[in-house]
Structure formats: structure tokens, C-alpha cells
């Protein structure tokens, strides 16, 4: 009662018998929107199981969406282990937790912060070792991203010598390099299979120029790039006269090669993968997100030593298999393009699990010219909420498109 009186004394309004799963139906709350909704230690009462408490969270989050402002957030205090996230210590088995990330995703919300519960703030509260989950609202949208690339120059080649530590070679004009080194950057598009680090569209930087003894300059250029990017795990491998730049987990992200006939040296870099490597991005799709939480991080021009902190914590992944019969005119590239369309770029990996072609002598399949394919699709999003319901809906939509668009027989 003391806390109620304190709230009223500072202009607060206290309402009783409000159903947290039907906030928009409360007469006193109709037409009102809030910056923050707080639910401390939700529980169905008595010895209710985790299933009932999950439903309580789900319906609470769905109810909150109707009374939240566009940039509003929801704070939920849970006992340690109930959330079912890696932040819980100890972490319960997923099936034995309240699955706060999954329940919030059903309402289009993402988990963006986890912090210890401050037992000193609530007046009269006795701490029993709880933790707090902070869930903020997410948006489902995909757009174009921008990145800033700074200038730099290495002294490489005959006739030039790098000054020692603390010294610099200053160039008086770019005109002297106009006919030596050229560069262009822009968007490129490729029809590539869906995999975690194979973007179909990305920003590419291409440098080329004339160098004396071009093939001998490649190792020097490679070492220069390696010195710059070794702290981020970059390695160089030689294959068929070219040097490839690679790093884990994205694989190859650049190539250097030479043409001794024309004395041309070329460098090609995937800037999206390079930015993901340098700033520790969990997914290249973040570079295309218009979410202000992502863009504001780079408006401050952070140094590479300041890695990006994801605004969507512990996003769930959903795995579904799909099987179908395809004829001899089957094109796998069209299948991957249709997966991107149906899933709205939320499928991060497609793996061929199995194929089967009927035996002409022993099999009774009506069309022995067809082959059965089984693929495994992994759905996950680092940019917006992806619930089990939404992932299943998009997977079902894909099955329909395979039948109507590609005329495949889905099994």
C-alpha cells in the first residue's frame, strides 16, 4: 500500500484487476500508448507448469503491442533460468524454460538486452536471486545499407621506398597515379546458392593498374593486405596463379591476380563480407537493414576495434525439410531464387540432403524420368522477429510456389 501511495503522490495512476493479456480491452487504457510496459515476475499461480507460463508470456506480449508506442519497449523480470537464453546461469533445457525469445517473437518483438535484476530499486523488495529480461519491439523490413571506407596507401613497387616507423611519404597530387592505379566500387549481383556467407548482392571494390613485372608485385600486395587484416583472422592462399583472401567463417572475400602480358594487377574485394569480418557482424544481411539501431552505430564512425553489438539477442533458428519430384529440366538456381522470394530472405542456409532416381527395371514409379530431391532449410533472422508461426507460414507458402510456379510435385 505504501508503494501505491508513493505512485499517486508523484502523479501516477494505479489500476486494479487489469488483465495483462487483454490490455487493449481495459476501458481506462483505451486510446493510450506507453513508452514502456513492465511485468515483474509473471506467473500463472500455484504449481502451474512451464507450458501455461509460456502461454501467459505469449498473450502478454501480444497484448502489449496494442498499447506500445512505435519505439516502446517491454521489460519482464524472470527468475534465473526461466528465460531459456544463454544469458541464464544456469541455463535450463529449452523444453523446460519459458522460452522468452520465442514467445516475444510471436508478437513481433525481439530480445535486445539482458541485465541483472536490481533488488535495491524496488522499495521493500527482498532479493531471491532473480534476473531480468528486457524485450524491445522489432520491425520486419529489408532495405539498403551504407558503409564508410577510408583512404589508405601502401608503398609497393620499384622506385619507391617506405620510410621507417614514424615517417610518411606524402603525395603532392593524384595526377601522377591517374594512369597507374584505377578503382571502382558498386553493387554486383550473382546467382549463388543460399548459404550463410554467400550474398546474392553485395558491394564490390575493384582496383587495377599497370605495374612493372606484375606477377612479382602480387606477393607484396598480398602481404600488405595481410598485415592490415591479420588481426581479424585473414589468411592468404595461392591457387592457379592468384592469391585468395579468406577468413572464418565467411570463407573467400577477395582475390589478387596479375596479367604479365599487359602488366596489369587486379584486386577484387567483397566489401560486405569484409565489413562483416572487421566489425564482427553475425550476418551480412544486417548491412541491408534500415533499422536505426544498426545505422546509428556506424554514424559515429566506430573503429574496427569496436565490434557491433547485435540489437537482436539469441535469435531462434527453425529447420524444415522439403521434398519434391522434378523433371529433367530442373534448375536448382530457380529453386534457390524461389526460396529467397517465399522466405523474404529469412532462409540462411539450404542443404541438399538426398536425391533418388527410380530404377528403370525394379521401380514402379509412373514417371521414371523424374528425380526426387530432399532439401533442408534453416530459417533465422538477425534483423527482425521471426517466430515459429511465421517461419512455418513462409515454408508452407514456399511449398505452394513450388507447385504453381515451378510445376514440381511436392511430397
Automatic annotation (TrEMBL):
GO terms for biological process: rRNA base methylation. It comes from the Eukaryota. InterPro entries: BMT5-like (IPR019446), Fdx_antiC-bd (IPR005121), Fdx_antiC-bd_sf (IPR036690), SAM-dependent_MTases_sf (IPR029063). Residues 313-411 form the FDX-ACB domain. One of its GO terms (cellular component) is cytoplasm. GO terms for molecular function: rRNA (uridine-N3-)-methyltransferase activity. SMART domains: FDX-ACB. It holds the Pfam family BMT5-like. PANTHER family: FERREDOXIN-FOLD ANTICODON-BINDING DOMAIN-CONTAINING PROTEIN 1, PHENYLALANYL-TRNA SYNTHETASE. This is Ferredoxin-fold anticodon binding domain containing 1.
Amino acid at each position: 500500500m505504501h508503494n501505491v501511495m508513493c505512485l499517486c503522490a508523484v502523479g501516477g495512476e494505479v489500476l486494479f484487476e487489469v488483465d495483462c493479456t487483454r490490455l487493449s480491452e481495459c476501458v481506462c487504457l483505451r486510446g493510450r500508448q506507453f513508452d514502456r510496459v513492465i511485468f515483474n515476475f509473471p506467473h500463472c499461480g500455484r504449481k502451474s507448469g512451464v507450458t501455461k507460463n509460456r502461454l501467459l508470456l505469449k498473450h502478454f506480449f501480444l497484448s502489449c503491442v496494442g498499447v506500445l508506442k512505435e519505439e516502446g519497449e517491454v521489460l519482464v523480470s524472470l527468475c534465473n533460468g526461466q528465460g531459456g537464453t544463454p544469458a541464464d546461469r544456469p541455463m535450463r533445457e529449452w523444453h523446460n524454460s519459458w522460452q522468452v525469445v520465442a514467445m516475444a517473437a510471436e508478437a513481433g518483438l525481439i530480445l535486445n538486452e539482458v541485465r541483472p535484476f536490481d533488488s535495491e530499486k524496488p522499495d521493500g523488495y527482498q532479493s531471491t536471486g532473480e534476473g531480468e529480461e528486457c524485450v524491445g519491439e522489432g520491425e520486419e523490413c529489408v532495405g539498403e545499407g551504407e558503409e564508410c571506407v577510408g583512404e589508405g596507401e601502401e608503398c609497393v613497387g620499384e622506385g619507391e621506398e617506405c620510410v621507417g616507423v614514424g615517417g610518411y611519404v606524402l603525395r603532392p597530387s593524384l595526377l601522377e597515379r591517374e594512369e597507374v592505379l584505377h578503382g571502382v566500387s558498386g553493387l554486383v549481383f550473382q546467382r549463388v546458392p543460399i548459404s550463410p556467407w554467400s550474398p546474392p548482392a553485395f558491394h564490390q571494390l575493384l582496383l587495377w593498374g599497370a605495374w612493372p613485372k606484375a606477377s612479382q608485385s602480387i606477393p607484396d600486395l598480398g602481404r600488405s593486405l595481410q598485415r592490415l587484416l591479420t588481426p581479424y583472422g585473414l589468411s592468404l592462399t595461392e591457387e592457379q596463379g592468384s592469391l585468395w583472401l579468406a577468413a572464418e567463417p565467411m570463407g573467400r572475400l577477395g582475390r589478387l591476380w596479375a596479367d604479365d602480358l599487359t602488366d596489369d594487377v587486379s584486386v577484387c574485394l567483397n566489401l560486405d563480407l569484409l565489413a562483416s569480418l572487421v566489425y564482427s557482424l553475425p550476418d551480412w544481411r544486417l548491412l541491408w537493414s534500415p533499422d536505426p539501431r544498426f545505422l546509428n552505430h556506424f554514424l559515429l564512425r566506430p573503429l574496427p576495434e569496436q565490434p557491433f553489438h547485435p540489437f537482436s539477442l539469441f535469435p531462434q533458428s527453425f529447420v524444415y525439410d522439403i521434398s519434391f519430384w522434378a523433371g529433367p529440366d530442373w534448375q536448382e538456381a530457380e529453386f534457390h531464387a524461389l526460396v529467397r522470394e517465399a522466405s523474404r530472405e529469412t532462409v540462411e542456409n539450404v542443404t541438399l540432403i538426398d536425391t533418388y532416381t527410380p530404377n528403370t527395371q525394379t521401380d514402379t514409379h509412373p514417371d521414371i524420368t523424374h528425380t526426387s530431391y530432399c532439401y533442408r532449410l534453416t530459417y533465422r533472422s538477425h534483423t527482425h522477429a521471426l517466430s515459429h508461426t511465421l517461419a512455418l507460414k513462409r515454408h508452407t507458402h514456399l511449398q505452394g510456389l513450388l507447385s504453381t510456379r515451378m510445376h514440381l510435385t511436392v511430397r
